[in-house]
Design a protein that fits this description.
There is one protein chain. With about 400 residues, the protein is of the alpha+beta class. It is built from ten helices and 20 strands. Helices cover about 30% and strands about 30% of the residues. The strands form three sheets. Strands 5, 6, 12, 13, 14, 15, 16, 17 and 20 form a nine-stranded mixed β-sheet that branches. Strands 1, 2, 8, 9, 10, 11, 18 and 19 form an eight-stranded mixed β-sheet that branches. α1 packs parallel to α3 and α2 packs parallel to α6. The structure holds flavin-adenine dinucleotide (FAD).
Length: about 400
Amino acid sequence: MEETEVCIIGAGLAGLSAARWIRKPAILIEKKSEIGKPVRCGEGISLAAFVRENIPTQGPHIANLVNEVRRSFPNAKVIGQMRERPYAAILFKDKLEQWLSSQSAAEIRLNTILTNATKENDSWLLTTNQGVIRTKYVIAADGPASVVRRLTMRPKINCLPAVAEIISASPRSEEIECCLFFGNQVAPGGYTWVFKQSGNYYNVGITMRENGASRNYLQRFLNEKFTDIQRLENRSGLIPSQGWSHDCHYENILFVGDAGSFVDPIFKGGNGLALATGRLAAQALNHGRPQKFTQDVKSWPISAGELNSCANWLYGADDKELCLLADYMLNSDARQEKYADWSRVKYFLETWGKARNFVWECQSSISGYCPNHRIIRTIGPDARFVRE
Ligand SMILES: Cc1cc2nc3c(=O)[nH]c(=O)nc-3n(C[C@H](O)[C@H](O)[C@H](O)COP(=O)(O)OP(=O)(O)OC[C@H]3O[C@@H](n4cnc5c(N)ncnc54)[C@H](O)[C@@H]3O)c2cc1C
């Protein structure tokens, strides 16, 4: 039997980030035979997350740098936040994971599947298809369907399926090149995204309330917005839907990334939080203080519960309310009590406002409305310049 101090399960962004920062003897096991593939993601991330995690903002892992993320609403208003410098990136996520693996301080073992975990005194005995590993600490980074959670009987993570694919196509309008689309015609109880990678290549996808219908909605959307569509690669997968809890440390096991449900419940982004929680878990273990990880998460300025309430409003909103939200984002004069539904919009904006520093800086909040950042361009039927 092999012995190590730390065993990391899973070589996604969370596990690889933990492997990069760990300073104890560590092994990372991954069931796949290749790092990074297949990709199951929309591949958007904020550059603030890269800066925070000390990841280069240029290189083969960057498909496209974005200085305007747009949102399209049912009243056909398209709102963008054009900045002078790029503030988000569309990734080649497999390349990012490969780059992270080149930085790993842990020994990485591919084709190694965790099948059982039992506690023996102060150690965990991890059974894999390649033998048993005895370890003091486990970093569970094994994704939304976490086997570690199941084996240790921790509560399951609620997930939403998201349909996504890489297409090659010609857009009917360049406005859609990095855009989230809201509205009941497009994605009831969710949204559709279009993230341009390069040339005519796009990562497109949808997450919505009625999962069964999402492929049809996406197909209709693509036919409306693109011509010459060729489907190249499936990117669909599961997204944790409930947000994180503070129950992310159990008997020297730290749950990070999707395995800890570290996803923004509003816009579902988890790439930035996977990087952050992997690092925080490794740093806590470097100090020999696993409980530090929970303390760090507890000290975050916004709780998943607050973001969840926001998500409930956004994805329960009818088209009229979504239009009101768009009106406000275009022009804060629209913030008038004359709208009967204003209190619900106000609630969303206030909560999101509270979250913005944290979510914007600490997450892949490519989707974020960020009142602090000056909007210098709006586009769409009511095109005009707005300053905040
Ligand atoms: C369709 C889709 C679109 C998305 N779009 C975005 C987006 O645009 N922006 C954003 O920020 N987030 C997005 N997300 C969320 C984001 O992809 C995840 O939050 C993030 O990838 C989580 O990383 P992770 O390392 O925790 O998990 P994962 O990437 O799932 O990695 C888990 C790893 O564990 C391995 N593993 C599992 N079980 C075992 C086992 N028993 N033994 C060994 N290894 C095991 C798996 O093979 C895998 O490599 C999207 C998700 C989906 C599904």
